[in-house]
């Protein structure tokens, strides 16, 4: 708790000061600058549209969660394939890299064209965003496994299943989690971009509607909710990593 | 019993082992010394059934993974397992009950100087402790045959002397954690384990083993067999005894 106060205190103070300055500045230049609404105005916009937000949030969260799920499964599978067969590595590794050079903003309209305005194109966008970092860092974990370690466990008579459980999975987990952590904020952004292009629900839709209505106060509400969602998911992954990779905890190192 | 009849190993064009014959009777301790890179580890890997499986025979059966407990020069602990769970890796890999293995491991922690560290992560242990834990893992695997590849090679001289004496003692203790739940032992609890130890430390070889094989530079051939017929457990100062020194000279001469 004391550590939390020590670490969170300074940034919290800083943000408070920033918000106050912003409020003062926005009030003085109110008429001339509709693009930067005062925090109080954003707060009112939040209260006004609060009843709409859970629905949009749920849609974005669903697309993100499903996309992350698909991306993680595909990423881990490719990591396993790429780490198991040298030939697969030579064929797939360049393709993996190429798949990442197409920006989401370019891809999203195409996907909407092909897969419609439903959940599917968002899931695909998120999955694509998550896939690469997860595949790369999981493959890194798998390929980093000490071959002597594998041989030792095998010398006691371990079969493939035991090796997988004892060595490969634990070796891959930290990489998997760090890949997830890297890609999560992009995953949320991917879902939102997908929704701004075409959707019936979602924070991206809320954003684009607000923008078209010149309701910049609502745009800010949307951006803040999206940021909070990213932070929440990031924390969730950190908690999962903490639970599933206890040997990596830093606090344990000093005891 | 361990039997290896005229082993030859090539890695591509590289001839690594030539005509090596090795026989270790049940309960006996055989040490292998030789220049570095000559093929000692390769021979041990054949005994472990990792290379050319079936070529060696362990207790009358073709060598295969799971027949002998193998320990490499590096401790090779799993970083994601606490000490106690590392101790059971060999047993679990053999398919033994985890619960039983844990109980046996727990009962040996004190004897291996690791009491109180059951829940530590490997990175929290000192080099000597990690090595003892790796040795404990080979004991908990509950196999009659131990294959030790320079188990103390990475340690400082003092710790090494310490662990040598301690290994000799532990092997001489009746049982030494041997559960003999598997029926192939005629005299449960009293038999010594059969050990092959690879080392480059001549004192270590003569101090621990009943017989020392000296390998030539690559390709490895057996150039000398030197007996070390002293009662176990042996005092550390045995290294200064006159006939011990003579045997040591014989080994060193063979090493060239
Ligand atoms: N899997 C392998 N493939 C090719 N060469 C190997 C392999 N394993 C060992 N060697 C070579 O065989 C020789 C003997 O190795 P090793 O048995 O590890 O020697 P030692 O344990 O006596 O130091 C070395 O020259 C080593 O480079
Ligand atoms: Mg070696």
Q: What top-tier CATH class of chain A fits best?
A: Mainly Alpha
Q: State the fourth-level CATH superfamily of chain A.
A: MetI-like
Poorly predicted spans of chain A: none
| Rg calc of chain B | 18 Å
**Which strand-content bin applies to the residues of chain B?**
15-25%
CATH architecture group name of chain A = Orthogonal Bundle
Ligands, ions, cofactors: adenosine-5'-diphosphate, magnesium ion
Radius of gyration of chain A: 22 Å
Overall geometry of chain B: globular
Tally of DSSP β-strands of chain A: 0
Annotated CATH homologous superfamily of the domain at 2-68 and 147-159 and 193-255 in chain B? P-loop containing nucleotide triphosphate hydrolases
Per CATH, what is the topology of the domain at 2-68 and 147-159 and 193-255 in chain B? Rossmann fold
Major sheet strand order of chain B: 6-7-8-3-9-10
Instruction: State mean pLDDT of chain B (0 to 100 scale).
Output: 89
In short:
The complex is a heterodimer of chains A (255) and B (256). Chain A has helices at 2-28, 39-49, 53-84, 86-101, 104-115, 120-143, 147-155, 160-197, 203-212, 216-244, 250-254.
In words, what does this structure look like?
The complex is a heterodimer of chains A (about 260) and B (about 260). Chain A has about 260 residues and is mostly helical. Chain A has one domain: MetI-like fold (Orthogonal Bundle), CATH 1.10.3720. Chain A has 11 helices and no strands. In chain A, helix 3 packs across helix 8. The radius of gyration of chain A is 22 Å and the shape is globular. The model of chain A has no long low-confidence stretch (mean pLDDT about 85). By secondary structure, chain B is α/β, with parallel strands linked by helices. Chain B has a domain of about 140 residues: P-loop containing nucleotide triphosphate hydrolases (Rossmann fold). Helix content of chain B is about 30%, strand content about 20%. In chain B, the strands form 2 sheets. In chain B, strands 6-7-8-3-9-10 form a 6-stranded mixed sheet, sandwiched between helices. In chain B, a hairpin with a 2-residue loop joins strand 1 and strand 2. In chain B, helix 4 crosses helix 5. Chain B is globular. The two termini of chain B are about 30 Å apart. About 5% of the residues of chain B have low confidence. Chains A and B meet through helix 7 and helix 8 of A and helix 3 of B.
């Amino acid at each position: 708790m004391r550590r939390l106060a020590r670490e969170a205190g300074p940034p919290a103070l800083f943000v408070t000061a920033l918000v106050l300055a912003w409020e003062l500045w926005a009030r003085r230049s109110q008429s001339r600058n509709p693009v930067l609404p005062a925090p109080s105005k954003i707060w009112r916009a939040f209260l006004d549209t609060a009843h709409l937000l859970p629905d949009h949030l749920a849609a974005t969260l669903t697309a993100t969660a499903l996309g992350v799920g698909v991306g993680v499964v595909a990423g881990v599978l490719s990591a396993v394939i790429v780490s198991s067969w040298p030939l697969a590595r030579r064929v797939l590794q360049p393709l993996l890299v190429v798949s990442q050079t197409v920006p989401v903003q370019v891809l999203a309209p195409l996907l909407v064209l092909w897969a419609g305005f439903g959940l599917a194109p968002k899931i695909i966008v998120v999955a694509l965003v998550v896939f690469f970092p997860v595949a790369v860092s999981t493959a890194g974990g798998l390929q980093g496994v000490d071959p002597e370690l594998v041989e030792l466990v095998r010398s006691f008579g371990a079969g493939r299943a035991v090796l997988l459980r004892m060595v490969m999975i634990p070796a891959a987990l930290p990489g998997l989690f760090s890949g997830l952590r890297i890609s999560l904020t992009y995953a949320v952004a991917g879902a939102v971009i997908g929704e701004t292009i075409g959707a019936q629900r979602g924070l991206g839709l809320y954003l684009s509607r607000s923008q078209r209505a010149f309701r910049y106060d609502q745009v800010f509400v949307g951006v803040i909710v999206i940021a909070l969602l990213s932070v929440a998911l990031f924390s969730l992954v950190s908690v999962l990593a903490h639970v599933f990779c206890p040997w990596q905890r830093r606090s344990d190192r000093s005891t | 019993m361990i039997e290896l009849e005229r082993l030859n190993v090539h890695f591509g064009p590289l001839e690594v082992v030539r005509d090596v014959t090795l026989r270790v009777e049940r309960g006996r301790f055989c040490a292998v010394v030789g220049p570095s890179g000559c093929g000692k580890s390769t021979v041990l890997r054949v005994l472990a059934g990792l290379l050319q499986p079936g070529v060696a025979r362990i207790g009358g059966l073709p060598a295969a993974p799971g027949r002998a407990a193998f320990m490499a020069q590096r401790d090779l602990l799993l970083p994601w397992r606490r000490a106690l769970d590392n101790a059971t890796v060999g047993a679990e890999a053999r398919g033994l009950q985890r619960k039983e293995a844990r109980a046996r491991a727990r009962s040996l922690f004190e004897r291996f100087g690791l009491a109180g560290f059951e829940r530590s992560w490997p990175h929290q242990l000192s080099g000597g402790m990690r090595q003892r834990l790796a040795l404990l893992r080979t004991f908990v695997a509950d196999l009659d045959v131990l294959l030790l590849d320079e188990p103390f090679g990475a340690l400082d001289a003092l710790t090494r002397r310490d662990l040598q004496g301690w290994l000799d003692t532990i092997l001489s203790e009746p049982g030494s954690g041997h559960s003999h739940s598997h029926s192939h032992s005629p005299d449960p609890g009293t038999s010594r384990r059969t050990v092959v130890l690879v080392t480059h430390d001549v004192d270590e070889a003569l101090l621990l083993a009943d017989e020392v094989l000296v390998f030539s530079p690559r390709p490895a051939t057996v150039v000398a067999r030197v007996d070390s017929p002293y009662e176990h457990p042996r005092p550390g100062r045995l290294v200064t005894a006159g006939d011990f020194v003579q045997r040591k000279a014989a080994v060193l001469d063979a090493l060239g």
